[in-house]
Write a structure and sequence with these properties.
Layout: H1 8-15, H2 21-48, H3 56-73, H4 81-86, H5 92-98, H6 103-114, H7 125-147, E1 151-157, E2 161-164, E3 168-171, E4 178-185, E5 188-192, E6 199-203, E7 210-211, E8 217-219, E9 221-223, E10 233-235, H8 261-271, H9 274-280, H10 283-292, E11 295-299, H11 309-312, E12 316-317, E13 325-329, H12 334-356, H13 379-401, H14 407-432, H15 439-456, H16 462-486
Parallel strand pairs: 11-13
Antiparallel strand pairs: 1-4, 2-3, 3-8, 4-5, 5-6, 6-7, 9-10, 12-13
Helix pairs in contact: 1-15, 2-6, 2-10, 2-12, 3-5, 3-7, 5-7, 6-7, 9-10, 9-12, 10-12, 12-13, 13-14, 13-15, 14-15, 14-16
């Protein structure tokens, strides 16, 4: 039986690695609801926390931050205990900040600290929680600036940097955690700190950017919208919670990168033309990127080529707790950027689907062959890999057949199609044969099998097919060697 939360038609669309506007909107709404519930959990945990973990001044400050969010929301609520326990956030400026992808990792971090997480570093959980909750003050301030609400607040720079999400960052004259006063009125932010001149930052009339002649201020960077007149996409190299998680699936990802003006120009060059290439691979590929990608987090160029970087020259990933964020090192071309977005939006879709319905009951044991990695993988990771590679095969098949591509682009597309197709053919049987699939999972996998079978009707050129088979054979040998070593 399919979950009542997910219409079968939506599941069937996703099983074909597609998804119409209604299905994508369903995934987004569900993720947004989960984000608001997560934030509610943080607020409740702060209220219930022992004063030894969360002192009363910290709790009171969080209430003040919530009141500022409500002012940005336009609710007119006061921020007392009754409001704190019951009011919701409805308006665009406040809600947009709370639903920003990287607020998810912040909230998860705060919950772990409130739950008694043990830290490896020199700071205590109480100190780290104080720093984490101080970031919520910056989130509230950014929302109020976006809404045009006048205010004056005391903020805390972390390690000499005060980040206002979506606006930019101030580098303080002193290192460490530094208090900074921020006053905002009539489109002007004024930052005051001990031992330094005031820093004046102006907000453009359409709220699209900030400007300052002070070297201490770095404006938030963006990429142009994928659609004409569409919202720009943050290129977020500032948020303190943007790093990849420590999960094994992120072990091939490089660390976060800082993007200067020269680097941003390189990102824009690689980004330009991405939308037309996505459309070339199927209109739905462009639409899912527009619907699901809310920010790009730049990563450093990988030092060693492993995993997907062996093929693309770059690395990328998504985070379950940061729905809408794509983490990526600089793709080498618009085609590489388009493929990255296709790849990562599939992971986002499948992760969101998996939170709505249970797809399987397989355990975490790493024992499956994945042709895109040398070592064994758990079932969940294998399912994600098969899902994303079917979408990539579909994307490159459309590109290979497009009339407007050059001969070199066509040859490259056929090669990528052959590679992803052969990888899926090698990995899908293990997914299909599992007895751990739920009814919803079985519907999904049956559709993936149908998509794979349909690819057999459109074989690539012989040379591309032979290269793909050789590559998969080599990966199987590496997997067998890794399995023997680990065994």
């Amino acid at each position: 039986m399919i979950s009542s939360a997910l219409p079968e038609a939506a599941l069937r669309e996703l099983g074909r690695t597609a998804g119409g506007p209604d299905t994508l909107a369903l995934l987004v709404r569900d993720q947004h609801t989960r984000r608001l519930l997560l934030l509610r959990a943080v607020l409740d945990a702060v209220e219930a926390a022992d004063v030894a973990v969360c002192p009363l001044p910290v709790r009171d400050r969080l209430r003040e931050d919530w009141a500022l969010l409500e002012a940005a929301d336009g609710t007119g609520a006061g921020g007392g205990a009754e409001t704190w326990s019951g009011a919701g956030i409805r308006g665009s400026a406040a809600l947009d900040r709370l639903l920003y992808p990287l607020v998810g990792p912040w909230a998860r971090s705060c919950l772990r600290l409130l739950d008694g997480a043990v830290l490896d570093g020199a700071r205590t959980a109480r100190e780290e929680l104080g720093r984490g909750l101080a970031h919520f003050s910056a989130i509230a301030a950014a929302a109020a600036v976006r809404a045009g609400v006048s205010f004056t607040v005391r903020l805390l720079a972390r390690d000499g940097v005060l980040v206002l999400p979506s606006l930019g960052a101030l580098r303080t004259v002193a290192s460490g955690d530094v208090p900074v006063e921020l006053a905002f009125q009539k489109g002007v932010m004024t930052f005051r700190q001990a031992g330094a001149s005031d820093v004046i930052v102006r907000i453009e009339r359409d709220n699209s950017a900030t400007w300052s002649d002070a070297p201490a201020w770095s404006a938030a960077r963006t990429l142009p919208g994928l659609l004409p007149g569409g919202d720009s996409v943050p290129l977020d190299d500032l948020d303190p919670y943007r790093s990849a998680s420590r999960e094994p699936r992120h072990r091939d990802l490089s660390g976060p990168a800082v993007v200067d003006a020269v680097e941003r120009a390189r990102w824009v060059r690689s980004w330009e033309g991405t939308a037309s290439l996505l459309r070339l691979g199927g209109e739905y590929r462009l639409m899912e990127a527009v619907a699901l990608v809310r920010c790009v987090v730049p990563l450093a160029t990988p030092a060693a080529l492993s995993g997907q970087a062996r093929v693309s020259g770059s690395c990328s990933g998504t985070r379950r707790d940061a729905f809408g964020a794509v983490l990526s090192s600089l793709p080498s071309s618009p085609m590489a950027f388009a493929a990255t977005l296709v790849h990562e939006t599939q992971h986002a879709k499948l992760a969101a689907l998996s939170e709505m319905v249970v797809l399987h009951h397989a355990g975490p044991e790493e024992r499956y062959f994945a042709p895109w990695r040398p070592g064994p993988r758990p079932y969940e990771a294998l399912l994600h890999g098969v899902y994303s590679h079917i979408a990539l095969a579909d994307f490159f098949h459309h590109c290979a057949l497009a009339a407007m591509v050059s001969p070199a682009q066509r040859d490259s597309a056929w090669g990528r199609y052959a590679s992803h197709r052969e990888q899926v053919r090698a990995a899908l049987p293990a997914i299909d044969e599992s007895r751990d699939l739920t009814p919803s999972g079985r519907v999904l996998v049956n559709l993936l099998v149908e998509e794979c079978t349909r690819m057999d009707e459109n074989p690539p050129p012989k040379e591309a097919q032979e290269e793909a088979e050789t590559y998969v054979d080599q990966m199987r040998k590496e997997w067998e060697q890794a399995t023997r070593v680990s065994g």
